[in-house]
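Quick review question:
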């Protein structure tokens, strides 16, 4: 069983914001495969389906991004999901908008959602897809990440969401190292 988690904040006020890139990816994957993200458990909104013979849970934690860890931990424990089969999709201020970086493990980079996940899982050793949102140093970080993705960046956003769907598909057929080699150089 695989758990694919997109990080974001619940509610209409946060739709289309930089901090909700993970939610957007989950919604895009769900739409492509006809999965309804309408079940509720442990503070998460999720849907499940079988892909390449494996049960897959697509999860959007609903405890706000900074408290995502308790939701992720509850799903990992309840479904007995090995950390090698957990994939977190999150925004990243340190990457240029449109850049995707796939990693085995690593530090949170200041991302409070990842910090909370690491605190609950008691490890930094989990797989992730980091989506660049750039950083505007002229704005307060909170205001920037909670700001809407501008209209002029919508084409790039669409490309990112399509690419994440391809990464999702390859995640089940390639080794993780080959997955990183295939996608980490793409802009």
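Suggested answer, residue by residue:
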């Amino acid at each position: 069983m695989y758990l694919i988690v997109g990080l974001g904040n619940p509610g209409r006020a946060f739709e289309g914001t930089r901090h909700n890139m993970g939610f957007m990816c989950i919604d895009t994957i769900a739409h492509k495969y006809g999965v309804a993200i309408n079940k509720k458990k442990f503070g998460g909104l999720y849907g499940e389906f079988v892909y390449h013979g494996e049960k897959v849970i697509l999860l959007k934690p609903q405890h706000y991004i900074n408290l995502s860890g308790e939701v992720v931990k509850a799903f990992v424990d309840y479904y007995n999901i090995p950390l090698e089969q957990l994939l977190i999709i999150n925004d990243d201020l340190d990457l240029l908008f449109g850049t995707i970086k796939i990693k085995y493990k690593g530090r949170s980079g200041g991302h409070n959602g990842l910090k909370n996940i690491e605190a609950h899982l008691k490890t930094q050793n989990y797989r992730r897809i980091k989506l660049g949102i750039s950083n505007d140093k002229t704005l307060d970080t909170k205001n920037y990440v909670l700001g809407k993705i501008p209209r002029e960046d919508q084409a790039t956003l669409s490309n990112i969401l399509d690419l994440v769907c391809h990464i999702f598909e390859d995640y089940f057929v390639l080794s993780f190292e080959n997955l990183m080699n295939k996608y980490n150089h793409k802009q």
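Why it works: The two ends are 30 Å apart (CA to CA). The longest strand covers residues 44-51.
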